[in-house]
Amino acid sequence: MTLERVTKKRLALYTGSCHPALAEEIADHLDVELGDPGLITFANGEIRARYAESIRGSDVFIIQTHYGCDGRSINDAILEQLIMIDAAHRASAKRITAVCPFYGYARQDRKATGREPITARLVANMFRAAGAKRMVSVDLHSGQIQGFFDGPVDHLTAMPVLESYIRENADDPVMVSPDAGRVKVAERYAQHLDADVAFINKRRPKGVDNVAIAKEVIGDVEDRHCVIIDDMIDTAGTVVSAAELLVERGATEVWAMATHGVLSGSAIDRLKNAPITRVVFTNTLPVPPEKQFDKVEVLSVARIIADALDAVFEDTSVSEIFGGENQT
User: Fold this and answer.
1) Of 38, 56, 163, 177, whose CB count within 10 A is highest?
2) Is 29 in contact with 11 (CB distance < 8 Å)?
């Protein structure tokens, strides 16, 4: 007697506690319910996950953006996701994908000086050790981070969302890279929008962190609408310095756009007082009310992430969603 069985694939979607609103939006696009990971924080700060339903044999996606909120740090967010992954691994999930809309420690991707760690690699190693077989992230700070994870990495980009916004709201803009390292990104936007490109020559004082000084503009920005495009706005020092220089060189209007609105320290005050008329980023990170002001607009990347997760689940191409332009 021959017994034939048809294997049913099951997608299970869970979120950590840092940005449940984005996870809910992704779940809506996928037409699935978010599962209950049973997260508990004990009195001493330790975290435990206990899934409320069986996930044996499931394709499990665990969403957590690496961000400190509600009195907890970015390290708490990463550890919470690692614990959820470990719990899913021990619950016999068929495959576990770590979905990290914003990947923590991405700027520590190389040794810039002696005796420094490469923490972006350490974080990738921890996810693999916990049981993640695959990783999904949006606009990594540098492409080589894809090689730090020992498994497939789906590198998504918010470019379609940001580009659509520019197309609908800006007339004949100049795409400005805030430094030489992001010129290729600005050029890609410019090609799609049939726009001009400029970039800022900046300098970081030796031995000083979180400080960058804009020195000169390479490109014609006089009497032009300039759009500064970057992967993240953190302390806002770089983007504000660039905006001030652009205005000095005759720009009529300056926007600042980025995928990740980290907005640390005095970033909000800097942006409020800067010669920037719009600050646009996506919802890879939560934007609490105290960080929202009249210049800020937040766009959603939930559809892009949902489409990528659906492609991973159905074993179809993720890069085709972006026409192959998510690889660099």
Assistant:
1) 177
2) no
pLDDT band at 209 (very low <50, low <70, confident <90, very high): low
Q: CB–CB of 274/296 below 8 Å? A: no
DSSP H helices in the chain = 20-30, 74-90, 119-130, 159-169, 183-193, 237-248, 267-273, 302-313
CA atoms within 13 A on the CB side of 126: 17
DSSP-derived 3-state class of residue 173: strand
Give the 3-state secondary structure of residue 294: coil
Q: Return the CATH number of 11-157+303-322, one of 3.40.50.2020, 3.40.50.2300, 3.30.70.920, 3.40.50.2000.
A: 3.40.50.2020
What is the Cα–Cα distance from 8 to 50, expressed in whole angstroms? Answer: 24
What are residue 200's DSSP bridge partners?
217
Residue 1: predicted pLDDT: 57
Residue 311: Cβ within 10 Å count: 16
What pLDDT, on a 0 to 100 scale, did the predictor assign at position 180? 84
185-213 exposure pattern, b = at least 16 Cβ within 10 A, e = fewer: bbebbbebbebbbbbbebeeeeeeeeebe
pLDDT given at position 49: 98
State the catalytic residues: 202
Domain residue ranges of the chain, discontinuous segments joined by +: 11-157+303-322, 159-299
Q: How many CA atoms lie within 13 A of 78 on its CB side?
A: 17
Q: What single letter denotes the amino acid at residue 311?
A: A
